[in-house]
Write a structure and sequence with these properties.
Belongs to the cytochrome P450 family. This is Cytochrome P450. Its cofactor is heme. Strand 4 and strand 5 form a beta hairpin. The chain is globular and about 105 Å long. It starts with a helix and ends with a helix. It is 47% helix and 9% strand. With 486 residues, the protein is of the alpha+beta class. It folds into 2 domains: 138 residues, no CATH class; 303 residues, Cytochrome p450 (Orthogonal Bundle). The chain contains 18 helices and 11 strands. Strands 2-3-9-6 form a 4-stranded mixed β-sheet. A 3-stranded mixed β-sheet has the order 1-8-7, with no helix packed on it. A two-stranded antiparallel sheet has the order 4-5. Bound molecules: protoporphyrin IX containing FE. Protoporphyrin IX containing FE (HEM) binds next to helix 5, helix 12, helix 13 and helix 17.
Length: 486
């Protein structure tokens, strides 16, 4: 045995050396914490943490600390990303680590964690390298829910929902012309009623009723059964193929309700930004109008078959989402396992914020990022954003305004068509402009006075709406009346 001892010792030393070398090879020499503003013991950056419109400060800090930096608040690490490449690398390429959600305590308590947008998904470690999403029941629910969402919101299904979107757009324009002071309500009604009709198959005369039914539906599962007998809708789609999606009643109720929630307030916010932008940039309103006149003409209203022929409408819609992102800091993604990025430590449990406000103002991609300039999607000169051919691009499909990685918004196709038809119908029928005083002077409007929350929209402002021709409003009114029972 004695003669083997040096041999065993040599083997042991070789193994230790190998382990050491592998570890050195796999790790950068120094793993540092991400840069970021200096905090205080225990509370970290709590005092400096912006209490409203955090996206503005997150961008400002980004200009000092670089495209990725960290903040700490009471021991929780926030990783803030201000450029698209880093966000893609972490949230998309390493999506298996970066697709969890924060514990939104209140919502989790109220929904049992079943709101699809915040439900946790966990990643499974395999020999230290994490490749796959864990197949535990909580993840399984998210996967089944996403499968269902993809099937009702996918690009081949969305044209099915066009007539409802078009109908709500006509009703919105007619009322907007009659009483622009209530614009928020008209836009909200268009968004909510389209969503309730698509989700539950129910036509609603007003937004209040929409809210009432939505609450009842999420609380009482049997409502879905009744409503699923109505015209084609997400609920009916599920009830006809429930075996295929393998979602139980309760699960389906939450998935469908989350789709309603995701779909109702978001396009509304962009449409409010549209009204504000048209007051400030009448030159773009003219370009929109000229394009619609040339392609659609004055005899008929635009419809969703025109989408490929109206690139300026699509460019305006995409620029609105860039310039005034609806969800300016996105929904944070929780990191499942410790990670390293370019020599920096990203700890498990950190919340990664892809700051859309900053990402959408990255200098190389979006020169003069604070300017509203739809040209950047239309002109070859903007090589970073322009894409051929104009019959297809610009498109807002998979644009970073809808998030990045596995948790990307499943509703972007529906949103694209809803925004298109609302903008095209409004611009076909009427001009939006700043209000004037009795002396004929334009009343100034703030360029950026927006609410602060998960979503952000312009605070109430007033503008005038002037129909190009009374006949056009009549055409839309007739279209609404014909489509009333869709
Ligand atoms: C202008 C319109 C919209 C915008 C800007 C928007 C934006 C977003 C963003 C930023 C996220 C978070 C993505 C992430 O975590 O990376 C999200 C998630 C989500 N959105 Fe949208 N959305 C819009 C419309 C819609 C519509 C029309 C629906 C449904 C019909 C919808 C349903 C959802 C759902 C279910 C999620 C959660 C996905 C998950 O966590 O797995 N959204 N959306």
């Amino acid at each position: 045995m004695k003669e083997y001892t040096p041999l065993i010792s040599l083997w042991a030393q070789t193994i230790i050396l190998l382990v050491y070398l592998i570890q050195r090879y796999r790790r950068p020499k120094f793993i540092r914490d991400l840069p970021g503003p200096r905090g205080y013991p225990l509370i970290g950056n709590y005092i400096d943490f912006p209490k409203s419109h955090p996206w503005l400060k997150f961008k400002e800090w980004g200009d000092t600390y670089g495209p990725i930096y960290q903040l700490k608040v009471f021991g929780v690490t926030y990783v803030i990303i201000n450029d698209a490449e880093t966000a893609e690398e972490l949230l998309s390429e390493r999506g298996f680590r970066y697709s969890g959600r924060s514990n939104f305590e209140m919502i989790t308590m109220m929904t049992g964690g079943m709101d699809l947008a915040i439900t946790a998904i966990k990643a499974k470690p395999c020999n230290g390298i994490c490749h796959q999403t864990d197949r535990r029941p909580s993840n399984d629910y998210w996967r089944r829910g996403r499968k269902f969402a993809a099937s009702v919101l996918g690009s081949n299904m969305v044209p099915k929902w066009d007539p409802v979107q078009a109908r709500e757009a006509t009703r919105m324009v007619v009322d907007m012309v009659c009483d622009p002071t209530r614009y928020q309500f008209w836009l909200e009604r268009a968004s909510t009623c389209a969503s309730v009709r698509l989700t539950f198959g129910k036509n609603l005369p007003g937004a209040e009723e929409a809210e009432y039914h939505t609450q009842r539906i999420t609380e009482r599962m049997h409502e879905i059964e009744r409503i699923a007998e109505n015209p084609p809708s997400f609920a009916r789609f599920w009830s006809e193929k429930d075996d295929h999606y393998n979602l139980e009643w309760r699960e389906a109720a939450y998935v469908i309700a989350t789709l309603h929630g995701g779909g109702s307030g978001t396009t509304l916010s962009t449409m409010q930004s549209y009204c504000l932008a048209m007051c400030h940039f009448p030159e773009w309103q003219k370009r929109l109008h000229d394009e619609i006149e040339q392609v659609v003409g004055s005899e008929r209203a635009p419809n969703l078959d025109d989408i490929g022929n109206l690139p300026i409408v699509r460019a305006v819609s995409k620029e609105l989402l860039r310039w005034r992102p609806v969800v300016p800091i996105g929904i944070p993604h929780r990191v499942a396992f410790d990670d390293e990025y370019e020599g920096y430590r990203i700890p498990a449990g950190a919340l990664v914020v892809a700051n859309q406000w900053g990402i959408h103002r990255e200098k190389q991609l979006y020169p003069d990022g604070d300017e509203f300039d739809p040209e950047r999607w239309l002109d070859m000169w903007y090589s970073s954003t322009y894409e051929h051919p104009t019959a297809k691009y610009p498109t807002i499909r998979r644009f970073s305004a809808f998030g990045i990685g596995r948790r990307i918004c499943p509703g972007y196709d529906v949103a694209e068509r809803a925004l298109f038809i609302q903008i095209a119908s409004l611009e076909w029928a009427c001009r939006i402009k700043k209000k004037k005083t009795v002396n004929g002077e334009e009343i100034a409007l703030p360029l950026y006075e927006y609410s602060s929350g998960v979503t952000s929209q312009p605070l109430n402002f007033q503008f005038d709406v002037e129909p190009y021709e009374a006949r056009r409003v009549e055409v839309l009114k007739n279209a609404w009346e014909e489509a009333i029972d869709l």
